[in-house]
Amino acid sequence: MADQLVRNFCIIAHIDHGKSTLADRFLELTHTLTTKEMQAQVLDDMDLERERGITIKAHPIRMVYRHTDGKDYVFNLIDTPGHVDFTYEVSRSLAACEGALLLVDAAQGVEAQTVSNAYLAIENDLQLVPVINKADLPNARVDDVKTQIVDLIGCEESDILITSAKTGQGVEAILEAIVEHIPPPGGDPDGDTRALVFDSTYDSFRGAVAYVRMVDGCLKKGLTAELFAHDRSYEIDEVGIFRMKRHPAERLTAGDVGYVIAGIKDVAYLEVGDTLTTADSRATQRLPGYKPIKPMVFTGLYPISSEDYELLRSSLDRLRLNDASLSYVPETSTALGFGFRCGFLGLLHMEIVQERLEREFDLNLITTPPNVEYEVVTDDGELIRVDSPADMPHAGAIRQIREPYVAAEIITPPDYLGGVMKLCQDKRGSYKNTHYLSPSKVQLRYELPLAEVIFDFFDRLKSVSRGYASYDYEFIGHRPGELKKLDILIAGEVVDTLSRIIHKNHTNAQGRALCKKLKEVIHRQQFEVVIQAATGSRIIARESVKPLRKNVTAKCYGGDITRKRKLLERQRAGKKRMKQLGRVEIPQEAFLSIMEVEHGD
After folding, report:
1. Could you tell me the CA-to-CA distances from 153 to 98, 147, 160, 192, 444 in Å, in that order?
2. pLDDT per residue as tens digits for the range 570-585
C-alpha cells in the first residue's frame, strides 16, 4: 500500500469534550463496525472507563475512508485520555502520529488540558486540525470559542471546523480535512527496519504484545525481532492491524500502525519507547523515544493476606506492561508486612491502578496515604531522595528538606477569580500572572507545592468555581521548605505507615485532627490505647481509646469496702500488664481515614 494513502492521527482534548463520541461517528461513517457491533463510546472497552465516563487507555484502530477523489485512505486513529493524570498516554500517542484533531467543547471552551495537549502536539511537530464540538447545545458559544482557539494556536478562524459528534453534524468535513491537512507518514519501506513501540498489552496465552508504529522497513511472520533496550532476539509469530480486535496481516510496512507477537514471555523485556528492528535488516540507530514521565505521587500497596504477595508482584508486572507510567519497588512495613512502594502520575491514576488490581486480579489491598518525593540534605551534605515518611532521617540529622513544586495553570470564568486565588494562597501558592483568553475565560498561573495539590485541591477548586474551573500542572523542580515529619504513635509505638511530612504551620492542627480521627476507627481493647502525634521528640496531640472493662465488684453485696478495693486493685494491675504486653491491631479504616483529614487545615 502506498504510504501516500495513509493518515496517522489522534484526538486530543480536555476530559469530557467528546473524543470517544467523535471516534464512534468516524467508525460509523467509515463502516469499520457493523450496526450490531456499535455501541456508545465503543473504544472505551474497560469497565472502569464506562463507569466513570473517561478514557484511561489509548486505543488504536484502523479505518478505511473513501474520499471524494475516489481513493480509499487508511486512517490509523489513536484515541487518547483527557485527564491530567494520563498525559503520559497522550505523549505516547503523539509520538506515533503525524497529525492531531484538537477538540474543544463549544459550551466549555478552551480548558487547561486543551492548552497542555496543544503544546505537546506542537512540540512533536504535529499538524493540528482545530474542531469545535457540541455545536448543537443551546448554551454553545461558537464565536467566543473560535477566538480562544485562534489565541491558543494562531490559526485562522476559517480553519476551525464546527461539529456535533452526538448528531453527526459536520463529521464528514472532519474526515475530508484529515486527508487534506494531515501529511502522510514518511519513512523508507526498503530501508533498515525500525518500529517505535508506543504501547503494549499482555496476552495470557501468547505473551507480551507490542503495539508499534512502523517508521522504516517492514515486519512479517518468521523474521527475527530484536529490541534495542535488551540484547535478546525473538521469532515473530504474528503481525497485524487493529480493528476492534487484533486482525492478522501478511506484513507491516513503513507508515503502518499495528501489533507484533513474538513470544516475549518476560514483560520486563518489552519497554514502551523502545525501537524494534530485525536481524535481517538491522538498524544501527534507535528512534528518538519520548521522555519518560516521572512519578509524582507515591503510596504503599500491601496485600491483606501475606500469601498474596507473589500474586501482587506478578499482577503489577502485567499491569505495568499496559501502563508504562506505573513504577514500583518492594517495601516492608512493621505494621503491614511485605508490599510494594508504587509511583503514580496523580491521585486518579493511583485510584484506577488500585481498582484494576482488585478487579482484574482479584486482590484485596491496603493502600497507605499518598506522598510526594522529597530531597533531604543531611548534616554530612549527602542528598537523599525520600518518597516515604518512614525513610526520613532523624530530625537532628537533617540540614534541609526540599519539596517538589509544580507550575499550575488554572482556567476559570472571571466571576470566580477571587475564590480561586484565595484557594491558591491557602495552598502556599506563589502567583505568577493572569491572562484573559476571552471575556469569559481567565488563565491563572501559580507555582504550588505538589503535596498541597495532590490531596484535595481539585475538589476544592471545583467547589469554589461551581464546577467551571479546570487545571493542569507540570513539575518544575524541588525547592527548600519548612517541613516536618509528623509521627503517629499508637500504644507507644510509631506506626510508620501513618507518618506524614507536612509544613510546620500545619503540624499542630493536623496532629489533633489525625488523633481524633484514629480514635473513632481503632477498636476498644482490654486496655487503654493511647494515640499520640509527635514531631521529633515533642508530643503535640493526644487521644485515648478507653478500655473494655468488666465489673469485678458485681458479686460483692455489701460487706467490707476493702474487699472491693482489693478486686479493683487486682484488675488495675492486670490492665497495666496488658498495656505493656498487648498489641493493637490497626484496621484498614485507619489507613483510609488519614486521607479524609483535609490537608493543610
Report:
1. 17, 10, 11, 36, 18
2. 766 765 655 544 456 6
Whether 48 has a pLDDT exceeding 50, the answer reads no
Assigned CATH topology for domain 375-481: Alpha-Beta Plaits (3.30.70)
Type of residue found at 233: S
- Can you give 370-431 as a three-state secondary structure string? CECCEEEEECCCCEEEECCHHHCCCHHHEEEEEEEEEEEEEEECHHHHHHHHHHHHHCCCEE
Q: Looking at the whole model, is its pTM more than 0.90? A: no
How large is the average pLDDT for residues 156-166? Answer: 86
Residue spans of the domains in the chain: they are: 3-181, 194-278, 297-361, 375-481, 484-596
Note whether 228 and 275 are within 8 A (CB): yes
- CB-based contacts of 70: which residues, under 8 Å, 6+ apart? none
Mean pLDDT confidence for 524-541: 80
Domain 484-596 has CATH 3.30.413.10: no
Cβ atoms 415, 402 nearer than 8 A? no
Q: Which cell numbers in the block locate residue 338?
A: 511485605
Other beta carbons less than 10 A from residue 425's beta carbon: 12
Equal CATH topology for 3-181 and 194-278: no
**Cβ-contact 345, 314 below 8 angstroms:** no
